[in-house]
Specification:
Layout lengths: L9 E7 L4 H17 L4 E7 L6 H11 L5 E3 L2 H6 L8 E5 L5 E6 L4 H13 L2
Parallel strand pairs: 1-2, 2-3
Antiparallel strand pairs: 1-4, 4-5
């Protein structure tokens, strides 16, 4: 997947894993944001940092949680492109021009993240 395909949209790029309790807590909220703000051009993208062999378990978890947004399988090489993903969850907010505007690591106040999303969506 090439993030440049999402230019013109605000992207919430979330690195997560199936064994990460805070990650699983965030995902339903991210799904709700995708539904609520998708028409305003928000795109949530999930990157599972689980082992590739666990792809079936990731798909099962996605269905169980009712996640509508795309989820990709990531690895250390992909994580390195984002400054190294040494723990999850890690989320990036990327503006409409493709510039990373915020990084949230660990358990994050979802209200603060939503406020940043709303601010970016309000910008042309």
């Amino acid at each position: 997947m090439d993030l440049s395909a999402y230019r013109g949209k605000v992207v919430l790029l979330n690195f997560w894993a199936g064994w990460c309790a805070p990650c699983l807590t965030e995902m339903p909220r991210f799904n709700a944001w995708q539904r609520e703000f998708g028409t305003q051009k928000l795109q949530v993208l999930g990157v599972s940092m689980d082992e590739v062999e666990d792809a079936d378990a990731v798909r099962t978890l996605r269905r169980k949680l009712g996640v509508d947004y795309p989820i990709l399988m990531g690895d250390a090489a992909l994580g390195k492109l984002y400054g190294g993903i040494l723990g999850v969850p890690v989320s990036f907010l990327i503006d409409r021009q493709g510039v990373i505007r915020a990084r949230f690591q660990g358990e994050t106040g979802l209200a603060a993240m939503e406020k940043r999303i709303r601010t970016l969506l309000a910008q042309p």
